[in-house]
Write a structure and sequence with these properties.
This protein is of the alpha+beta class and 227 residues long. The protein folds into two domains: 48 residues; 177 residues. Helix content is 20%, strand content 41%. A seven-stranded antiparallel β-sheet has the order 2-14-11-5-6-7-8. Strands 9-10-4-3-1-15 form a six-stranded antiparallel β-sheet. It is globular, with a radius of gyration of 22 Å. The two termini are 12 Å apart.
Amino acid sequence: MNNLLKTTLATMLLSTSYSASATLYMFEDNNASNGGLSDRLDSITSTYDTDTENFTWDVTFNADPTDVDGFWLVVNGGGNPKTANVNELAIMYGDMATNTLTTYVYNGANNSNSWSNPGIYLQTDSFTTTSDSLSLAIDATAINAWAGGDYTGISYADKIGIWFHISTGSNFSYGPGGELTSYGYASQGWYDTPSLSTTVVPEPALTALLGLGLISLGAAGRRRTRG
């Protein structure tokens, strides 16, 4: 392999590495108990792709079966989201009895009834649960496209702020359009954390390209040695 081709390959790999490292962020906490009922939490893992705006949130509980049957969740790129200003973020409500996730514009109030005031409904998604876990993966493109003030919807990068409350004895009801009409619970706990560090997850394509590049360079070296 001549020097020009080597240089071209190296440049391509570095460029791909930069692109991948700027895209997918992951947060993970394997000791996630915090306050109140959050002693039920075992681990939390989340990813956010800044290109596709896909958001994931995976939780394992420390009892099987868990008695957790509801939650609300707000994330941002830094400080504690529960202190956000009006209409800056999106808030997700999870009904674990029906696996229904309902998302609203968050009004900045530190309570579970943000959905009702101003009641800006964004979308409904489904998620999965087992006897000791929940897992959601949503396309937040439409959620993040809502326009208003300093609104950022559901997103984060090298830092994440989390306002995550779980509930037991939860009761949800819905209107004909899928919007929430009520959410009540017997008890709740919280995982409220500001400015936690995330990690960059390289895309699979980067690994493949690196592998091909190393193979090509190795093969060229062997051919040169034999010659």
